[in-house]
Design a protein that fits this description.
The complex is a heterodimer of chains A (180) and B (150).
Chain A (H helix, E strand, L loop, with lengths): L1 H11 L3 H23 L2 H16 L11 H19 L9 H4 L7 H18 L4 H12 L4 H8 L3 H24 L1
Chain B lengths: L2 H11 L8 H36 L3 H36 L2 H4 L2 H27 L8 H9 L2
Helix pairs in contact in B: 3-5
Chain lengths: 180, 150
């Protein structure tokens, strides 16, 4: 948190090194969010690129009110939503096979991890976007409900309802898939 | 464990590990740096332009700026012309006075005020020059007689 404040302070004074460090620190989180939400690596890369270029354009005037990670994830989330609206149904999942990067745990663990992540993405894709968004931001990126509510400009009760309904639906899909 | 917690755990452990490629990193950083440079340059230009605009368009700032320019011009004029005129005056002043007049308190005060201790020294040297070389031998009686005019 303090490190982020210092980075932002330096960034506002035109430090390219600070911008590079912010990018290195949060690029994977943003990429993970975009890939999970869109299941398309190329669009996810474009979104991460646009978020950072847009962020660089705020140098000198950027004011951090919450956490830097929260801010960047919100920016990425907004762009993902826009992209999701524009995308046609036939494109969904086109690049999903390559979307997830291999882990460094070895080939077997890597294969299992990729399969599990892909399985989750399939399940999440069946949820309404709003429910998927809050589940991913809360469970994968550790954002608190009030942070997400503030970023998305919705009440915390609405957000918690979306989260609960989303998890219920996910559970019913999973148990339905198992029983059938 | 409650069903909701089960699902939370189920989702958490299946977090996608997506990393960016080197090419993408390079492209993103280059574009970000370019955007940053552009915004910083734009701000600098805007600041310069706005300062000029404030002076030209503001009713209060315009006469203040004009007055400042006049003051600067006058100051420069005084700085460049002042010392020469002073020196000329001192020379004229000194050349027209007799040794007795040059050594009065008023005369030395004027010299000091206009040229400092150097001007006083110069004035004293001029007095000595005007008096001419000292005689080889002179008694106190003769000196007093000379001063008393007898």
């Amino acid at each position: 948190m303090v490190e982020d404040r210092i980075l932002v302070w330096r960034f506002n004074r035109g430090s390219k090194d600070a911008l590079r460090r912010i990018y290195e620190k949060y690029k994977d989180a943003l990429m993970g969010l975009a890939v999970t939400m869109l299941r398309d690596r190329s669009i996810a890369e474009d979104i991460v690129h646009d978020v950072f270029v847009s962020f660089a354009g705020t140098a000198g005037t950027f004011h951090l009110s919450g956490t830097l990670k929260g801010y960047l994830l919100t920016c990425a989330g907004n762009r993902v939503r826009d992209s999701n609206r524009l995308r046609s149904e036939r494109d969904v999942g086109l690049n999903s096979v390559d979307a997830i990067s291999p882990s460094s745990d070895g080939p077997v663990d890597d294969a299992i991890s990729r399969e599990e992540s892909s399985q989750l993405q399939d399940l999440l894709a069946r949820l309404p976007y709003e429910q998927r968004e809050v589940i991913v931001l809360h469970l994968h990126h550790g954002m608190r409900f009030w942070e997400i509510a503030e970023a998305l400009d919705v009440s915390i009760n609405t957000l918690q309802s979306r989260y609960r309904y989303g998890l219920d639906k996910l559970r019913s899909i999973v148990s339905g898939g198992v029983t059938k | 464990m409650r069903p909701q917690e089960d699902m939370e755990k189920f989702v958490r452990v299946r977090k996608a590990r997506a990393t960016t490629s080197r090419q993408m990193d390079k492209r993103t950083l280059n574009d970000s740096f370019a955007a940053m440079d552009q915004i910083i340059q734009a701000k600098q230009t805007k600041y310069k332009r706005s300062a000029r605009r404030v002076i030209i368009r503001n009713r209060i700032m315009r006469p203040i700026a004009a007055a400042a320019v006049i003051v600067v011009v006058i100051s420069l004029f005084i700085v460049h012309r002042g010392p020469d005129e002073q020196a000329d005056t001192v020379i004229v002043f000194n050349s027209t006075k007799s040794p007795a007049e040059l050594l009065t308190v008023a005369s030395l005060n004027i010299a000091f005020r206009r040229g400092g201790i150097e001007a006083v020294e110069r004035q004293c040297e001029q007095v000595i020059d005007k008096l001419g070389p000292p005689p080889a031998m002179i008694t106190v009686k003769e000196l007093l007689a000379e001063f008393n005019g007898t």
